[in-house]
Automatic annotation (TrEMBL):
Listed NCBIfam families: PRK07509.1 (NF005699)
Stored Pfam families: ECH_1
GO biological process, one term: fatty acid beta-oxidation
Listed GO MF terms: enoyl-CoA hydratase activity; isomerase activity
UniProt similarity note: Belongs to the enoyl-CoA hydratase/isomerase family.
Pathway: Lipid metabolism; fatty acid beta-oxidation
Identification of the protein by name: Putative enoyl-CoA hydratase echA8
EC identifiers of the protein: 4.2.1.17
Transmembrane segments: none
Superkingdom per UniProt: Bacteria
Keywords: Fatty acid metabolism, Isomerase, Lipid metabolism, Lyase
Length: 260
């Protein structure tokens, strides 16, 4: 049975976790399917991605059978091996969405716990239902967040919030998550809101959007001088090129731009 569906419509990739009867909990098949979906979308000509989970919840994290399996394995190889550039397979579940060269908007309903939250953190933007719950759940099982959470969390929230969430494993409501910066905004219909944002992005210059995502990653990780140089170098590749000319022409003619 398929764990993830990928559909394309109007330049938007719709990636949906399809294990709704299990709250989209992560088993080995789900892990493989999410990685495959991320890699497929990254190689496509999609201009934006909407990431969601079917059913009552976005993703409840690792399922119990996977915990039992993990306890019986020699963890050294699958934890320490770097199978995806700088990441192992589980870390790539979140980081693959940062590697996707176009914006990823995640719609959250129900719960986003543990690994499910870390996958959501890999998206550029998170839209959550007001009644949804989020948790850095790993401490409940005597482990720590190790799916890219320690790369992603400190970029979004204060150090004391990272520590509180990690040490206690307590779920927080969507409003608190938004106040702290884990969630971008709240919506009574997060999937529809995520799609509206994706449609807005898909209508922009495709080359400028990809450049912007690449530049933001540089801005978040590199020293000032490198960021300033990257701004200039990236802009040089946009100005006067077909997409940028079409944007200006469409603005002057009072119409929507059409990109090839």
């Amino acid at each position: 049975m398929s764990r993830v569906s990928v559909e394309y419509k109007d330049h938007i990739a719709h990636v949906t976790l399809t294990r709704g009867d299990k709250m989209n909990a992560l088993d080995d098949a789900m892990v493989k399917a999410i990685l495959s979906a991320g890699q497929e979308v990254a190689a496509s000509d999609a201009r934006a991605v909407v990431l969601s989970g079917e059913g009552k919840s976005f993703c409840a994290g690792l399922d119990m059978a996977s915990f039992a399996k993990m306890a019986q394995m020699d963890a050294t190889e699958w934890l320490m091996g770097r199978s995806h550039e700088d990441a192992n397979e589980m870390q790539e579940l979140a980081l693959v969405w940062r590697r996707v060269p176009v914006p990823v908007i995640c719609a959250i309903q129900g719960v986003a716990f543990g690994g499910g939250l870390q996958i959501a953190l890999g998206a550029d933007i998170r839209i959550a239902h007001p009644e949804s719950k989020l948790a850095v759940m790993e401490m409940k099982w005597g482990i720590i967040p190790d799916m890219g959470g320690m790369v992603l969390l400190p970029r979004l929230v204060r150090s004391d919030v990272v520590r509180l969430l990690t040490y206690t494993a307590q779920p927080i409501g969507a409003q608190q998550a938004a106040d702290w910066g884990l969630v971008t905004k709240l919506s009574d219909d997060p999937l529809t809101e995520a799609l509206a944002i994706a449609e807005n992005i898909a209508a922009q210059s495709p080359s400028a959007i990809r450049t912007a995502k690449r530049l933001i990653e540089v801005a978040e990780t590199q020293p000032r001088a490198e960021v300033l140089l990257a701004e200039s170098a990236e802009q040089l590749e946009l100005i006067g090129k077909p997409d940028q000319i079409e944007v200006v022409t469409a603005q002057m003619q009072g119409r929507k731009p059409e990109f090839k």
